[in-house]
Design goal:
The protein is an alpha+beta fold and 370 residues long. Helices cover 52% and strands 16% of the residues. Strands 1, 2, 3, 4, 5, 6 and 7 form a seven-stranded mixed sheet that branches. The chain has a two-stranded antiparallel ribbon with strand order 8-9. Strand 8 and strand 9 form a beta hairpin. Helix 4 runs antiparallel to helix 5 and helix 7 packs antiparallel against helix 10. It is globular and about 75 Å long. The two termini are 29 Å apart. Pfam families: Acyl-CoA_dh_1 (PF00441), Acyl-CoA_dh_M (PF02770), Acyl-CoA_dh_N (PF02771).
C-alpha cells in the first residue's frame, strides 16, 4: 500500500490547481455568486480542453483511461478552490457509474459529451424521510423493454444542469440503478437553496422512462455507488480543510497583537496543531478508502470511517480556522467563509458523522452475530 501519487496523478493536481487559481479567484467567485447559479461555463470548458473531464473514463469514449484515484485527486483540487463546477456530480456520481455499469449504447450516448464538456450528469440517492441511501423507496417497474420510475429524490447535486440522472430505485426483486433523462416526461426538477450555494435540486419522478444499469460482479450496485459517492465527498473535504488551514496559518503569522504575531501565542498554536492532526486524519482515511476502491477491493467500512472523519474533523478544522481569525472569520466577504460552508455541506451530505458511526456499529454487530 503506497499513498504517494504517480507522475500522472501529480500532473492532474498541478493542471487543475493552475486552472482553478487562474479562473476561480475569490473576486470572480463573488461576482459569480451574485448572479444566482453558482456554475462557471467558461471554467467547465477549460477543464474539458485540458482533458480533465475524461481522466477517469475509458479511452473508448474519449477518456484517458485513469481510475478512481485520479478522480479523487481532481476532486481534492475542486475543494481546495471551492471551484464552481459540477465535477463531483458529473464525474463521480454520473459518468463513473455509467462507465462501470452501462452498456455500450448508454456509454456512447452520454460519456463522449462528458469528456468534451457538452453534457453534465449526476446521481440521485437521497430521499425525503430516509436515512439510508442504499434502500431506495423510489419504485421502478418494467415496461416492455424499458422501465418506468416513480418517486422523489432530494438534494440532487447539479440536477438543474444535468442532461441525465442516475436514479436508485427498487424493483420487484432488488434495488437497482437507472438512467433518466431530465428532458423527458415525468421529470420535475426543482432547484433548492443549500448551505454552500452550490446548485442542488429536488427531483420528482412520475412514470419517467429509464434505462437500467447492470451489475457485472454480483455486488450491491446501489451500495457501491453510495460508497464511491462518500469517498468522493471526502476527497473534496481534503482540499477544503487544507485551504482553510492554510488561510488560518497565513493570517496568524501576519496579524499582530501585543507587538507580535498571534500565531506565536501558545493557545493559537495548540488550536492549529489540533486542526493539522484532524486534516491529516481526513487525508489518510480518505485516500485509504479511495485506494481500496481503485484496487477493486471492498471499501464500505473504510468509506464510512473516512466520511466520519471528513464530517467530524472537517467541522473542527474550519471552526478553528474561523476562530483564530477573530471577527474576520465570520465576514462573508472574506474567502474563509466559503470553506466553512463547504465543510458544513459535505459534513451533512449522504449521512452525518453520527449516521456513519451507526452504520459502522451495525457492521460490527453483524460480524459478532456470525
Amino acid at each position: 500500500m503506497d499513498f504517494s501519487f504517480t507522475d500522472e496523478q501529480e500532473t492532474v493536481a498541478k493542471v487543475a490547481r493552475q486552472l482553478f487559481e487562474h479562473l476561480a479567484t475569490p473576486e470572480h467567485l463573488t461576482e459569480l455568486e451574485t448572479g444566482g447559479l453558482r456554475y462557471d461555463t467558461a471554467l467547465w470548458a477549460e477543464l474539458a480542453a485540458a482533458d480533465l473531464l475524461g481522466i477517469a473514463l475509458p479511452e473508448s469514449v474519449g477518456g484517458t483511461g485513469g481510475g478512481f484515484l485520479e478522480l479523487g485527486v481532481l476532486l481534492s483540487e475542486v475543494g481546495y478552490s471551492v471551484a464552481p463546477v459540477p465535477v463531483y456530480a458529473t464525474l463521480a456520481l454520473g459518468a463513473d457509474t455509467i462507465a462501470r455499469h452501462g452498456d455500450s449504447d448508454l456509454q456512447r450516448r452520454f460519456l463522449p459529451g462528458v469528456v468534451d464538456g457538452s453534457i453534465q450528469l449526476t446521481a440521485a440517492l437521497a430521499e425525503p424521510g430516509s436515512s439510508d441511501p442504499t434502500a431506495p423507496r423510489t419504485i421502478a417497474r418494467a415496461d416492455g423493454d424499458g422501465w418506468r420510475i416513480t418517486g422523489t429524490k432530494e438534494l440532487v447535486p447539479a440536477a438543474q444542469l444535468a442532461a441525465a440522472i442516475v436514479v436508485s430505485a427498487t424493483t420487484d426483486d432488488e434495488p437497482g440503478l437507472f438512467v433518466v433523462e431530465t428532458g423527458g416526461g415525468g421529470v420535475d426538477v426543482r432547484p433548492v437553496a443549500t448551505t454552500n450555494g452550490e446548485p442542488f435540486a429536488d427531483v420528482a419522478l412520475t412514470d419517467a422512462v429509464g434505462w437500467r444499469l447492470t451489475e457485472h460482479t454480483g455486488a450491491d450496485i446501489v451500495g457501491a455507488l453510495y460508497t464511491r459517492a462518500l469517498v468522493g465527498l471526502c476527497a473534496m473535504q481534503i482540499g477544503v480543510v487544507e485551504r482553510a488551514l492554510k488561510l488560518a496559518a497565513s493570517y496568524t503569522s501576519e496579524r499582530e497583537q501585543f507587538g507580535r504575531p498571534i500565531g506565536s501565542f501558545q493557545a493559537v498554536q495548540q488550536r492549529l496543531a489540533d486542526a493539522f492532526i484532524d486534516t491529516e486524519a481526513i487525508r489518510w482515511t480518505a485516500w485509504y478508502a479511495a485506494w481500496l476502491i481503485a484496487e477493486g477491493r471492498p471499501a464500505e467500512r473504510e468509506a464510512a470511517i473516512a466520511k466520519f472523519w471528513a464530517a467530524e474533523a472537517g467541522a473542527r478544522v474550519t471552526a478553528s480556522a474561523q476562530q483564530v481569525h477573530g471577527g474576520m472569520g465570520i465576514d462573508i466577504t472574506y474567502p474563509l467563509s466559503r470553506y466553512f460552508l463547504w465543510a458544513k455541506q459535505i459534513e451533512l451530505a449522504l449521512g452525518s458523522a453520527s449516521q456513519q458511526l451507526a452504520r459502522l456499529g451495525n457492521t460490527y454487530a453483524e460480524g459478532l452475530n456470525r
